[in-house]
Amino acid sequence: MLILKRRIRIPEDIKKAQKKIVHISDTPESIYGFLEKLFREIQPNIVIHTGDLVDNIKLERKPWLREEYRGKLVVLKQVLSRTERLYLIPGNEDDKEIIREVFQNSAIIVEPGTILEIWGKRIGVGHEPEDVTNINADFLLYGHDPKKTFGLNGILSINVITYPDWRVFRIPYPPGTNFDRGYRMLRGL
């Protein structure tokens, strides 16, 4: 597996922000190094992962990969735990019990459809778009479906929300992320 090294361009407004929330979703293990580098640059206060933590291991269809999944979660924990607060919303490809065992007290595991109160704002979180469709909140965070574009879809980009101005910045995932997620590539005619 070839992982391209590239410079991460972080807007100065993110770096200057008093506090930062980073929203990610559907992360294959191939981007864990990229996320670690990104988090060092951004220094988020809060990370919200909206599910499918090891998206290249599809537990829903391949439950016999549970031990491999557990091992990859240990690596991901090292990346995600360098923040003040970490929220995890389990996705359809996740195992809640293994997540609890691996992350223990270093993460808050949240059910899809929950509203988080963060710095005076209401943030609706879910894995699938349907988890947040009918939620009344300032921000709606989800993943799972690359075709949905309302709110903040963590598959389409890494979303950084800055405080106190509440601006949203979208940072692209590295090239090849969708391939590693198992998405079929569109072919030209």
Automatic annotation (TrEMBL):
Calcineurin-like phosphoesterase domain ranges (all copies): 20-158
The organism encoding this protein is Pyrococcus kukulkanii
Domain of life, per lineage: Archaea
Entry-linked Pfam families = Metallophos
Record's protein name? Metallophosphoesterase
